Amino acid sequence: MSRLRWIHTLYHWTLSWAGHSYAAWALFGIAFIESSFFLIPPDVLLIPMVLARPTEWLRYAVITTIGSVLGGIAGYYIGLGLWESIGVAIVEFYHLGDVMHAIELQYQMHAFFTIFTAGFTPIPYKVITIASGLFHVPIITLISASFIGRGLRFLLVAGLIGIWGERMKVAIERHFDILSIMFVMLLVGGFFVITWVF
User: Fold this and answer.
1) Considering Cα of 171, then 173, then 176, then 179, what sign does the dihedral take?
2) In the chain, how many domains are there?
3) Cα 51 from Cα 36, distance rounded (Å)
4) Is 13 domain-assigned?
5) pTM of the model
6) Could you list the residue range(s) of the whole structural domain that residue 185 is in?
7) What does the mean pLDDT of the chain come to?
8) Quick check: helix, strand or coil at residue 195?
């Protein structure tokens, strides 16, 4: 199986600078923008950073969670006050405009669970945060559901890697192509899931 070179290059590049002082800020930044408009999830940085410094797994998970939740709040206010100028363009970029009404119905029934599910799974969280503002979900619901959903996800990812450490690194290197394909499938699958679920 041919190696997905760009992903492999990104992986090793991230490993190489994980020890730099600005690495945590980069992780925070990616987590922030992914929650409001960016495509690539912060797991792409979180995983190699924890592999490079396993003892820092909890710190990295907390940084990612805080950045993601704050980015979700930014997404909320895009939906609340900047829908026409920014929000609709983001949603249409991901071809998810047709699911917005269905998301509104889900919010009317169980907003907390909807946000939690998007935060924990590959469902595009950015669309959910923008929709939360657009449909006037109480912001405390967004924040609490996001902290739990995103927190559990990033603690689980970082914790497993941090605990298994070098063994996990060897396993990832050995099965890198397959894991890369699975990651891309999860990323793309999240967009299909949201259209199916909603």
Assistant:
1) positive
2) 1
3) 27
4) no
5) 0.84
6) 26-197
7) 86
8) helix
